[in-house]
Amino acid sequence: MPVGVQLTRKRELVRGAFGPYLALSEVEVGEVAGAVPVTGYRTRAKLVVSPGGAIGLYARGTHDVVDIPGCRVLSPLLSGVIAALRQKVQSVRLPLRGLDVREVRAGQAAGVLLTVIGLERDREQLVELARDCLQIEGVIGTAWSAQ
C-alpha cells in the first residue's frame, strides 16, 4: 500500500477510535507523519517460531507462522541477528516458540538484546540456547522467557 494511503488510513483509524467518546468528539486529529527513513528504522521485533523453524509472524486470523526471511523496516543489525538465528533454529530442532529482539544504543555503539521464548518444561534447552546466542555477532545480552 502506498505510504500516503497508509498515513490517511492511520488517521481515519484514530478518528474512528475517538468516535464513541463524546468527550473526544471535538479533538482534531492532525495529519500523520510518516517514518523517516521509511526502511531500516525499526529497532524491535517480536517474532513467533514454528515447530519447523520458520521465524516470522502469524498469518492473519490463524496461528500459522509465515516465515519472513527479510523485512525492509527492521534495522540492519536486527536483520543480521535474526538471519543467524534462522540458520541456528532450522539446523537443530529447538523448543522455541518466539523471539524478542531489541536493538540498543549507547552513543555510536549498538547491540542486540535477545529473549528466547518457550515453555517452562524446556527451560534447560532454552537457557542453553540463550547462552549459545551470545556467540552471534551483534548480540550483547540474552534472556529466556517462559510462556
Structure in words:
With 147 residues, this protein is an alpha+beta fold. Helix content is 29%, strand content 29%. It is built from three helices and six strands, in the order H-E-E-E-H-E-E-H-E. Strands 3-2-1-4-5-6 form a six-stranded mixed β-sheet. Strand 4 and strand 5 form a beta hairpin. The protein is globular, with a radius of gyration of 19 Å. The model has no long low-confidence stretch (mean pLDDT 92).
Core attributes:
147 residues; alpha+beta; 6-stranded mixed sheet; 3 helices; 6 strands; globular
Q: Which segments are poorly predicted (pLDDT under 50) over 5 or more consecutive residues?
A: none
Number of strands: 6
Nearest-integer average pLDDT = 92
Strand order of the largest sheet: 3-2-1-4-5-6
Q: Please, how many helices?
A: 3
* H/E topology pattern: HEEEHEEHE
Structural class: alpha+beta
The level of helicity is: 25-40%
User: First CA to last CA: what distance?
Assistant: 34 Å
Portion in strands: 25-35%
Largest sheet: 6 strands, mixed
Regarding quaternary structure, how should these chains be classified?
single chain
